[in-house]
TrEMBL record:
The keyword Nucleotide-binding applies. It comes from the Bacteria. This is Tryptophan 7-halogenase. Keywords: FAD, Flavoprotein, Nucleotide-binding.
């Protein structure tokens, strides 16, 4: 049977990203796409950080970067600044490192070996000019830089609710996606277990050939209707709750061009600055911190002002579905699963999975068995790599001030794949060949920034005299470029104001 009618269940970022990816890919193939969104269920709306790959996605959808920035309260994100992730007694009370978006050592050979000779300075400062740009709160580009192009690598911070609305408009106007506001009250299955139809509260039974479950944590199709089990990762990633709040800011306040991630006794705090407010969330393990203690910690972080704002506590079920594609249904976004937001992986995994599905979308039911097997293998691999990368932030910490940090270093809680990588990188500086799949979520530069930001003790490699001279020249060139960029680039807020006034050049 040919697949001609597709339903996306759920709106928000996940649903509308899926609708755009599929709408673009299937526009010329006589396939209709209908997004069914509940009018009664608000989106989670806390996923406000992205990674650089989102720029390529938005450009491919035909969305103007200027319009996106204006409509979605967008600010630029060039890094995640990890504060207080190491022992204060050993590394100082203001210890931090940057996980930058520009690759390290851009003007010659890798400088990691040079850093290991003298690891007192910040790794990111040695290997990238972007460290200085971030610390000076500067923008990653000029107003004359064309849309989606960059002087320094960047992603975005954004208002998630407004982002979903922009994606919704784009999908309907450019790709002909139909939008229905209704609640799914029941699901009918075929004898073979696949989904036959949805029962909607406003328009009764609706039949489709293929279903995309973007219904969030509820996962009303994949989990509830098709009974796909959940793979629990709470024994490796302990963080399972968040207290979230939005804090208004002054119109002239400095806007950091990075996400702040500040560690605490049993987790960490994200702090994302938009142009007129900050999105702040304290994530924690409820096995190590009571809810009331978490609120008290967030109140201290906000200098005693928490009660001035509306805040809420969100439980997080940490893990993913054993299958992401079952029968004629694929789950995306939170319906696939959730891992803590330490590296803004939720939107990233949704974008990756939706794009992958769109490029390998079945034209008939006969193709689904082979395609679903490949999709499930790929996405399982991706989710496991995210588990490893997130865990690395915790198990490398030398903090001893709570059981949370001590237990995170217990080998029983560290995935075997990560243990093998760390054992290798104890002897050798990481290189791209250590990551052997094209479906790696994080590249070697991501590992380098976190490993050496957290002072990982790789065995110091021997460097020949000539190589050492060249490495120091390379480091000097990076510092010279950093000085030049700090003179040329505008402040973050200044660029945003100019974008709202004039807009970028079109590509």
């Amino acid at each position: 049977m040919n697949i001609q009618k597709v339903a996306v269940i759920g709106g928000g970022t996940a649903g509308w990203l899926a609708a755009n990816h599929l709408g673009k890919a299937l526009l010329s193939k006589n396939v209709s796409i209908t997004l069914i969104e509940s009018p009664d269920i608000p989106t989670i709306g806390v996923g406000e950080g992205t990674v650089p790959t989102i720029r390529k996605t938005l450009h491919s959808f035909g969305i103007s970067e200027t319009e996106f920035i204006k409509r979605c309260d967008v600010t630029f994100k060039q890094s995640i600044k990890f504060q207080n992730w190491l022992d204060k007694r050993l590394h100082g009370p203001t210890n931090f490192y940057h996980h930058l978006f520009d690759p390290p050592s851009p003007m010659g050979d890798d400088l990691s070996a040079l850093w290991l000779q003298t690891p007192m300075q910040e790794y990111s400062k040695l290997v990238s000019s972007q460290h200085a740009v971030c610390e000076a709160n500067l923008a990653p580009k000029l107003i004359t830089t064309p849309e989606y192009q960059a002087i320094q690598g960047y992603a975005y911070h954004l208002n998630a609710a407004k982002f979903a609305l922009l994606l919704a408009d784009n999908a309907q106007q450019k790709f002909g996606v139909t939008h229905i506001k209704a609640n799914v009250v029941d699901t009918k299955l075929h004898l073979d277990g696949s989904i036959d139809a949805l029962i909607l509260d406003t328009c009764g039974e609706q039949k489709f050939d293929f279903y995309i479950d973007c219904s969030g944590f509820e996962s009303i199709l994949l989990a509830k209707a098709l009974k796909v089990p959940f793979v629990d990762k709470s024994q490796q990633l302990f963080v399972n709750k968040a207290v979230v709040v939005q804090v208004p800011t002054e119109s002239d306040a400095i806007i950091p061009p990075y996400t702040k991630a500040t560690a605490h006794q049993a987790g960490w705090i994200w702090d994302i600055a938009l142009s007129s407010r900050r999105g702040v969330g304290l994530v924690y393990s409820n096995a190590h911190l009571e809810d009331e203690q978490a609120q008290q910690k967030l109140n201290r972080y906000l200098q005693g002002r928490l009660d001035q704002y509306s805040y809420r506590t969100i439980p997080m079920n940490v893990g993913y579905r054993k299958q992401f594609w079952a029968k004629n249904c694929v789950a995306l976004g939170l319906a696939q699963g959730f891992l803590e937001p330490i590296e803004a992986t939720s939107i990233m995994l949704t974008d990756f999975a939706a794009g992958y599905l769109a490029n390998r979308f079945p034209t008939s039911t006969a193709q689904m068995a082979a395609l679903s097997e490949r999709f499930n293998q790929t996405m399982t691999y991706a989710w496991e790599r995210v588990v490893e990368f997130a865990k690395m932030h915790y198990c490398l910490s030398d903090r001893t001030d709570s059981d949370f940090w001590i237990e995170n270093r217990d080998p029983q809680t560290i995935p075997e794949g990560l243990q093998n990588k760390l054992a290798l990188w104890n002897e050798y500086v990481p290189m791209s060949e250590d990551l052997f799949s094209k479906f790696e979520v994080f590249n070697v530069e991501n590992y380098l920034y976190v490993l050496y930001g957290m002072k990982y003790a790789t065995k110091t490699p021997q460097i020949g005299e000539l190589s050492l001279i060249e490495a120091k020249k390379h480091a000097d060139r990076i510092q010279q470029r950093a000085n030049l960029l700090c003179q040329q680039l505008p402040s973050h807020r200044d660029l945003l104001q100019k974008i709202h006034q004039f807009g970028f050049q079109k590509v």
